[in-house]
Amino acid sequence: MGVRALGRLFQVSRGTIENKIFRLAHQALGVQGVVWGRIRLGEDLVTDGLESFWVSQYYPVNWQVLVGAQSQFIYGVDAVTIRRKGRMREEQKRRREEKERTYRVSAKGVEGSVLRVYQGVDYLLEGAVSQPVQLRYDEHPAYRRAFANDAALQEWVQRGRLELRSYSSRLARTTHNPLFAANYLDRELRKDLAEHVRETTRFARAAHTALERFMVYLWEHNYRKPFRINQPAEDPLTHARKAGVSPAILRWAESWMFSKRVFLSRFPLPPPWLDVWLRMQETPLAQKHPYLPHYALL
């Protein structure tokens, strides 16, 4: 459901719903940061970009995700505004040019987003159970350029700890596809998050709130949603369990998520997630920085 629809359902204002999502997103960020730091990587990784839009269709957004190849556990996410492409009428081209005079996106935005997602890969590779870890992606040229310019990733490749493999995005989207985990997550996001439904009227109005909603969804996907539907209801295997997170850590995460408050000073976050916490993501055409409560800095 959209934010306004949730407000009507619970008979509260839109601001109340957004405030609850903001607080839940911070809880999810803090707890996920702790759990993520205790994962011993035992699978290959898959990355892909999901295209959606925010503010208007003249501002598409690329959601870059890093997913476990076997567990479909979401290890990382980043979002960046990209230039509208594809077939357009002359009127639409003129309107795009007018908007670009006010706000123009970076030509290398996707490359930067790819590298931000992988800022935490070093830690995952250091404690990986099996070597080398294969990093799979499609044939988008941004991946090749980003990986070639990243000294840290190239060092892991030279040490034999990481293997970079590209696959065609035209392969059948079956469970045998090497990119299945990313394709699966693409389908789930389109289905579960209102703002990513194609041609939807429930698109995101601000970048920072879109990322906060994704973080709440990340918690639900990683720690609450069953890995597969046909499982015992009393003890379902979640994506986190499939990724190797111990039941004891999961019980701790569940307890902290809904009973104890997460503070930034006690739960250090990697740079991409710190930007989400501080609402640093830039919204096209926004006149000012979004409001950040003082308690978020404690």
Write the layout of secondary structure elements.
Layout: H1 3-10, H2 14-36, E1 45-53, E2 60-68, E3 74-81, H3 90-102, H4 109-117, H5 121-126, E4 133-137, H6 141-148, H7 151-158, E5 162-166, H8 180-192, H9 207-224, H10 239-242, H11 247-259, H12 271-277
Parallel strand pairs: 1-4, 4-5
Antiparallel strand pairs: 1-2, 2-3
Rounded average pLDDT: 90
**DSSP summary: helix tally:** 12
- What's the N-to-C terminus distance? 32 Å
Give the C-level CATH assignment: Alpha Beta
Could you characterize the architecture of this molecule?
- 37% of the residues are buried.
- The longest helix is centred in the N-terminal third of the chain and has 23 residues, at 14-36.
- The chain is of the alpha/beta class and 298 residues long.
- The protein has twelve helices and five strands.
- The model has no long low-confidence stretch (mean pLDDT 90).
- The protein has a single domain, classed as Nucleotidyltransferase, domain 5.
- A five-stranded mixed sheet has the order 3-2-1-4-5, with helices on both faces.
- The chain has helices at 3-10, 14-36, 90-102, 109-117, 121-126, 141-148, 151-158, 180-192, 207-224, 239-242, 247-259, 271-277, and strands at 45-53, 60-68, 74-81, 133-137, 162-166.
